[in-house]
Structure formats: C-alpha cells, structure tokens
Design a protein that fits this description.
This protein is an alpha+beta fold and 227 residues long. The strands form three sheets. The chain has a five-stranded antiparallel β-sheet with strand order 3-4-5-6-7, covered by helices on one side. A hairpin with a 4-residue loop joins strand 10 and strand 11.
Amino acid sequence: MLCHVRFVTMAGLIKHHGQECPERGFTLVEALVALFIFSWLSLAAYQMLAQVILTQATNQKASEALALNQRVSRQMAKDFRHLVNRPIVDEDGFLQPSIVLEGEDNVIAFTRRGWSNPLGWRRSELQRVAYQIDYHPDANDTASPFYNDERLFLLRYYWPVLDRIEETKHQRQVLIAGVSDIEFQFMASAGSEWDALLPESVALPFAIEVTLLFANDEISSHIYRIL
C-alpha cells in the first residue's frame, strides 16, 4: 500500500493562513471609545493643571498679604514700643501731650524715640508720629491707579521736627488697604487691666494693644510693650 506524503512549502503555509486570518483595523465603536478615553484624560490633566495654577496664585496672594502685614506690624512696633514723654507744640502754637488719642485729624498721635539717622543729619532722634484711617491720598488723581478707590487705608504721618510752625510739612506713608477701623487698649502698669482710655495715673502706658479691623472681617491684633 502506497502512502502519499504531502509537502507544504513555507510560502504556501503563509499564503494559506493569510487567507484564513486577514488583517483587521479598529472599528468605529473602538475608535470612539479610544477618543473618549483620550478626551477624558486630557480634561482631567487640564483640570489638574488649572487647580495647580489657582492654588499657586492663591498661595502667592496670601504670602504677599502676610508679608505686608508683617511689614506694617514691624513699623508699628518701632513706633509704639519707643514712646517717650515729650509734649510738642503744634503748628497753631498749642501744646499737645506726648500721646493724643482720637485727635481732630488723627486716630492717635505720639512722640517716639529711636528715629534712625543713617546720613548723620543734624536733627533730633525724637519724632512725632500719627496714624490715620482715610482714603488713598491719590483717590482724586485721575492719573493714579487709586483714582476713585473707595477703600480705606491705614496712613502714617511724621514730621521733621517736634515743635512745628505753620510752614512745617508732614510726610505721609500709605501702609495697608482695606482697613475699616483701628482700636486701642492701654495697660497702665504691669498686671493692671486693659482700658480703652489713656491712663491718667502715668505719663505713658506700660503696654498698648493695637487691633486692625479689615473690610473682609479679618482682624489683626498686636501688643506692644513700651521699652
């Protein structure tokens, strides 16, 4: 009995299988699913990036506000901690006490020591300082970015001399915006109670608490002991 052996070449085998397993591409449903997944991932990545940018901007704004508050606190500390008992003569020729609370134009005015003099000018190391809450000095200047700005600012004033004449000009510093009010508490001596009125028993208080109230309901309070 004869046995027939069939030899199949490699080319024939490839051709035979190629006919049975033709190449296939993506179907429309598969393409739509892939497009949906890609779009979803892109949207998620964009939202994450937007959130990172927003968080960074918020943190930057908070850092700038904190730095500004710290600068204002340092300036007020240099002023209030160095109060001295030195009355002054104002531009109208009237004698004013060392510290005046709720004056005609200012919230508080006082004499302080320790006025730095790096250039060695011939002047006293004592300085008359005042704080006031008012609109920005350039609120009526059409060329100023603060034109028609309705926010209230904490302003600091100081004079080049203690005893003034009519020609004496003050210097003005804009410290911080959005301040709605400023409050003071005074401690006459160590361990005594806080009082909103200036102590009459001593020339200068032992300590002063300064509280800034902002239009956004934030509160900043600091206690300064007179050195």
